[in-house]
Design a protein that fits this description.
With 252 residues, the chain is an alpha/beta fold. Helix content is 51%, strand content 14%. It is built from nine helices and nine strands. The chain has a seven-stranded parallel sheet, with helices on both faces. The chain has a two-stranded parallel sheet with strand order 7-8.
Length: 252
């Protein structure tokens, strides 16, 4: 039986990934901080679920998680956990910034680094790194740290993609780069999106469909696809000013 591991599985897109993959017949390894929330989800799913409570902001905990996952036969790894914050860079919390870097970058990096060799040796499997449309922009004034972490994710994923391609590996890696999604992200980041959000369910379903097609950068909506093209065409300073204008509209 194929197994998928999902971090940040207790809510939002991660929960929808779990529901969809379980419906497709995958056994699941669900990772998040709250064991109770994970168990409540697992009880509703039709396939076998192993729950692993883990604080992904703690390096030793992530390394321990990686060692545990190495002993499982994982077919799909979805690095979904992450969060953001809104505000001027010199005014936002340093501790929150550092936790964001640890969860959005460090945890994803460790899990990808540790599990990729196993995937390559087996010559099969999928890794989906959940980034953001933020990772396709030059920078995000008023969400500076968040945009920077997601740029890291898209860059890292793209580099690994090319290495796998040149090695003629059957392992596939992709980055999901959605725009606004209706999840608890908004509350944690203290934002209200000015653009309409898509549902977490539609985002997860689209992401999996494109992942299995072999897509590298997965952008669910036409508006964000157009924005990603504009970034490559328009001057950097212009795009930064436009991004700043949009960020200011998000303030609660």
């Amino acid at each position: 039986m194929a197994t998928a591991c999902i971090t940040g599985a207790s809510s939002g897109i991660g929960m929808e990934f779990a529901k969809k993959l379980s419906k497709m017949g995958y056994d699941l390894i669900l990772v998040a901080r709250s064991a109770n929330t994970l168990q409540a989800l697992a009880d509703k799913l039709p396939t076998h679920c192993e729950i692993i409570p883990c604080d992904l902001s703690i390096e030793d905990s992530v390394i321990e998680l990686a060692q545990t996952l190495k002993t499982r036969s994982i077919t799909i790894l979805i690095n979904n956990a992450g969060f953001g914050d809104l505000g001027e860079f010199d005014q936002t919390s340093l501790n929150k910034d550092l936790d964001m870097i640890r969860v959005n970058i460090m945890a994803l990096h460790i899990l990808t680094k540790e599990l990729l060799p196993i995937f390559k040796k087996r010559n099969s499997g999928y890794i989906l790194n959940v980034a953001s449309s933020a990772g396709l922009f030059y920078g995000g004034p008023y969400m500076a740290t968040y945009y920077a972490t997601k740029a890291y994710v898209t860059s890292l994923t793209s580099a690994i993609y090319e290495e796998l391609k040149e090695a003629r590996s059957n392992v596939h890696i992709a980055a999901l780069c959605p725009g606004p999604v209706d999840t608890n992200f908004n509350n944690v980041a203290n934002v209200r999106f000015s653009l309409p959000g898509i549902s977490a369910k539609s985002c997860a379903n689209y992401a999996l469909k494109e992942l299995f097609k072999g897509r590298l950068i997965i952008v669910p909506t036409f508006i964000m696809k157009a924005a990603a093209i504009a970034v490559r065409i328009l001057p950097r300073k212009y795009m930064l000013a436009m991004t700043a204008k949009q960020q200011k509209k998000k303030q609660l």
